Amino acid sequence: MIPFARPYLPPRKRLDRYLDRIFESAWLTNDGPLVRELTTRLEQYLGVENLLLVANGTLALQIAFATLEIKGQAVTTPFTFPATSSALLWQGVGPRYAAIDPKTLNLNPHSVERSITESTSGLVPVHTYGNPCKVEAFSALAQRTGLKVIYDGAHAFGVRYKGESILRWGDASTLSLHATKLFHCGEGGAIVFRRYEDLVRAKRLINFGLSDGVPTEIGINAKLSELHAAMGLAVLEDVDDIIQRRVEIVLRYTRLLANHTELPFRSESSTLNGAYMPVLFSSLKERETVRLKLLQNEILARPYFSTSLDQLPIYSNTLKFDRVAEDAAERVLCLPLFYGLEDSEIDRIAKLTISAVGSHTS
Ligand SMILES: *Cc1c(COP(=O)(O)O)cnc(C)c1O
Asked: 155 CA distance to ligand 1 centroid (A)?
């Protein structure tokens, strides 16, 4: 069976060296030495400041919203993992969906502008599949309107845009460090703030709102543990290799499939990180033909994302259907992509995909 994703496991001996430090200090959580070391190393690696590690990528979004006081409504994309919208709703903020661009599948800034109402306090775009959003347009819009921008950068680890980390854009950008993401702590997340004051406040919010032991505002527990930081530190030593191999895989798939399928358009000003391999088929029927053909051959490809969130009543009471996102959710399929995937397996997956496209009659 070829899985859709396989978590990267670092050499056991290396992980053990970090675990030994935990056993020696008996310091398991609460801003311990490994969390601090991982914070510094991630800031250096990514080229960012004001990075805060948290328990997962969903809490990263929630803490960023709470810190920046996002209230009322936020304009966001329906074409994303459910956590982007759920995090808003858990903070009592209503997602208001704008349209995505049919080529990049990222939020269309013009549609975002038209979706702003009096109760909008923030914009929450996603760098879908690690492809940067139109960040300049969102910055200009934020400046004109005074709205805060929080990017869900869960797919964008290590992506550089015009020579700098994409995570430097917006008032805050978040990362997911979940096991299936390209860099991970098992479970984990991070927020990169533009302003140091916001980092200070968020640090308090993830630790019960405590200031010198006394709660000064309502916080939550969203701390990353030392055990998770140990995993992160062990994986980080290999992250250049991981990204390099994943990008090779994406380029190999792209070379094999480009003439047979549609691939989302990518910004030319940014680096690849090999986060996902999305392919757009001509119809839902063709996508399903390909998916089932791969499944028959014990290959797991995922319709990621399979539903446009604006169509689900739990997320949207306005039910404003975005045809572009709905269409993309019906036609998209992400192919298997992980560090250990072999060239011969990529070739076989591409061949099966092409033959299924060829056999399909609409
Ligand atoms: C993975 C993911 C999240 C959630 O991150 P967790 O660490 O799993 O909580 C949020 N948004 C997007 C776009 C994701 O892909």
From this structure: 8
